[in-house]
Specification:
The protein has 333 residues and is of the alpha/beta class. It has five helices and twelve strands.
């Protein structure tokens, strides 16, 4: 009994002692795990710090690189600007040098052209003139041989020649080295106007060309309203007469188309609504009235002249042909 009790006590001892030992081991394990956990936490914190540092470092590097790139870009732009300025300056210098050379050449050429006897006028030609003699045109131009071909102003020469009323347009051509051509477009006298027992030639634009003793067989326009003091070669009829001149041209053109070309001796425009023409060859005065129905009137005129050929008198077509007016002839008694 005593031995069993001793063994039991011993077992209890070892059990208690083993349990205590196990608890000590468990405690050590817990402390170890706690230390490992703390270590992992520290390492994690250190890793975060390291990562943050790396991130910040990378950010700084990127910013630094970006700044460097921007600086490099700025430097390149500055170099580009400088290069552009330099090129622009060089171009400007080249341009001015070329300009100086060109101006020098032109100046030298002008000086040579104005002084060299090669360019002295040797021949003056007048083209397409029929009314005004060549010598008259050359005299009006005031051009002279042995004068430098470049020293006269074309505009001045044109104005001088146009002082002649027959001259309508002028073109001046310099034919290098020594010929001047004067190309002329003349006005042509179409009518003559009664003026103080004389005749003034006019063209179809109403320009007064010349005062003469003879009508030169041109149709004589009677009854103009232009004042005597305004009748001067080179001037024009007044506006009222210019308006009536348009009717005169219409009448003459239609007479020419109907076989009366060159036969109209005179046309009276004293009254706008009572125009009349005289044909000396037929010894007939034709009372036209207005210019309305002029074609039909002209047909009646031709018919009556043929019917009354050789008789002196008046033909009346000055009524309203659209209102039963019948043209008629009245023989002179």
């Amino acid at each position: 009994m005593a031995r069993k009790g001793k063994e039991t006590n011993m077992n209890l001892y070892y059990m208690n002692h083993g349990q205590a030992k196990q608890e000590i081991m468990d405690d050590k394990i817990k402390r170890k795990k706690a230390k490992e956990r703390e270590k992992r936490i520290k390492e994690s914190q250190q890793q975060k710090i390291q990562n943050k540092f790396d991130l910040d470092t990378e950010t700084v590097i990127q910013m630094t690189n970006r700044n460097n790139i921007e600086k490099e870009e700025t430097r390149r732009k500055e170099l580009t600007k400088q290069e552009k300025k330099r090129r622009k300056r060089n171009k400007r210098i080249k341009f001015f040098l070329k300009l100086i050379v060109i101006v020098g050449l032109i100046s030298g050429g002008i000086a040579f052209a104005l002084t060299s006897p090669i360019f002295n006028i040797k021949d003056i030609k007048v083209l397409y003139n029929s009314q005004v003699p060549t010598d008259t045109i050359i005299s009006l131009s005031e051009l002279k041989t042995q004068e430098n071909i470049f020293k006269f102003y074309s505009r001045k020469v044109v104005d001088k020649i146009k002082e002649n009323p027959y001259i309508e347009n002028i073109k001046i051509h310099r034919k290098i080295p020594s010929t001047v051509e004067i190309e002329v477009e003349e006005r042509k006298a179409q009518f003559s106007v009664d003026y103080m027992e004389k005749y003034v030639y006019i063209n179809n634009q109403g320009y007064l060309l010349e005062i003469s003793e003879d009508s030169q067989g041109l149709p004589i326009v009677q009854g103009i309203t232009t004042k005597e003091e305004e009748v001067e070669p080179g001037k024009r009829l007044n506006n009222e007469d210019l308006t009536r001149l348009e009717d005169v041209i219409k009448i003459i053109n239609l007479a020419n188309k109907n076989g009366l070309e060159g036969k109209v001796t005179s046309i009276d425009i004293s009254h706008k609504n009572e125009y009349s023409i005289y044909i000396k060859e037929e010894k007939k005065k034709i009372h036209l009235g207005e210019t309305t129905n002029l074609n039909n009137k002209m047909l009646y005129i031709i018919a009556i002249m043929e019917q009354e050929k050789g008789k002196e008198g008046d033909i009346y077509v000055n009524g309203d042909l659209n209102n039963k007016f019948q043209p008629y002839f009245r023989e002179k008694v």
